[in-house]
Design brief:
The protein is mostly beta strands. The protein folds into 4 domains: 57 residues, OB fold (Dihydrolipoamide Acetyltransferase, E2P); 62 residues, OB fold (Dihydrolipoamide Acetyltransferase, E2P) (Beta Barrel); 57 residues, Nucleic acid-binding proteins (OB fold (Dihydrolipoamide Acetyltransferase, E2P), Beta Barrel), CATH 2.40.50; 61 residues, Arc Repressor Mutant, subunit A (Orthogonal Bundle), CATH 1.10.10.10. It contains 3 helices and 18 strands. It is elongated and about 75 Å long. 24% of the residues are buried. Belongs to the CvfB family. This is GntR family transcriptional regulator.
Length: 279
């Protein structure tokens, strides 16, 4: 069965000068324009993996290019324009922006800003649309995870405790600040691991598997070790000269800044004026 808004494997049924037509089953033949064809010539009977969506004239069309998000998924997307019907987002699909109706917005969206949204097929209209009202699409099934189970997460929001994340496009979860040992960003997709499912079904997530000994990168480890050796304070900061940083740690200033930034975010150090200290 054809899945609109997702990748499908479809058979070539006809070749024309401007592309090929694919077998869309009950939906009929679907055009894959010439510019999206693979380098190797296609003939009738070939099967192609294509993303199927409605074009600007509401005709089904196919592309081999991967969009930023598919139906049934969450992603952080940028608003390209706002009109009288809603906001239109860039989702990586040529000549067809993604609509977020006003009723699906949490406050009016603004052009140029980024928002985390859920993409779905509106069965009333048959169109692919998005919603910023995330809660209604999450935690609708019991969280049947096991400790240390590998999952995919989307980073959604930073709080005092850590980062709220979406797990496997199904549930809310939390990654705590004191368990983050590298910079992470809103909208980032990461591989993570279930730490525990609480009695209230809230889910704790870790970026490292349980028992993972190397919890921080080698440079961060060396910085912490050096702080231990010298009594918890080093006369270095992100503003120190590159040659001075290299003399201490044999690394670039960029690498040093990244390492202490991760340690600061994990609340392992304090960055002061011209120095770093153990927290």
């Amino acid at each position: 069965m054809l899945q609109i808004g997702k990748f499908n494997t479809l058979q070539v049924v006809k070749t024309v000068d401007f592309g090929v037509y694919l077998d869309g089953g009950e939906k009929g033949e679907i055009l894959l324009p010439r510019k999206f064809l693979p380098e190797q010539p296609c003939v009738e009977g070939d099967e192609l993996s294509v993303f199927v969506y409605y074009d600007s004239e509401d005709r089904l069309i196919a592309t081999t290019r991967k969009p930023y998000v598919q139906v049934g998924e969450f992603a952080r997307l940028q608003v390209k324009s706002v009109t009288k019907v809603g906001a239109f987002l860039d989702w990586g699909v040529e000549a067809k922006d993604l609509l977020v109706p006003f009723r699906e917005q949490n406050g009016e969206m603004q052009q140029g800003r980024y928002y985390v949204v859920y993409v779905y097929l509106d069965f009333a209209t048959g169109r692919i649309v998005a919603s910023a009202k995330l809660n209604k699409f999450l935690d609708n099934v019991p969280p049947e995870y096991t400790p240390n189970q590998q999952v995919d997460i989307l980073v959604v929001q930073e709080t005092q405790l850590g980062f709220k994340v979406i797990i496997n496009n199904l549930h809310w979860g939390m990654v705590y600040h004191n368990e983050i040992f590298r910079p992470i960003s809103i909208g980032e997709h990461l591989q993570a691991y279930i730490k525990q499912v609480r009695e209230d079904e809230r889910i704790d997530v870790s970026l490292q598997p349980s028992g993972y000994e190397n919890r921080i990168d080698p440079l961060s480890e060396r910085i912490l070790q050096r702080l231990e050796e010298v009594g918890g304070r080093l006369p270095l900061s992100d503003k120190s000269p590159a040659d001075e940083i290299a003399r201490y740690f044999q690394c670039s200033k960029k690498s040093f800044k990244k390492a202490i930034g991760a340690l600061y975010k994990a609340r392992r150090i304090v960055i002061g004026e011209g120095e770093i200290r153990k927290s």
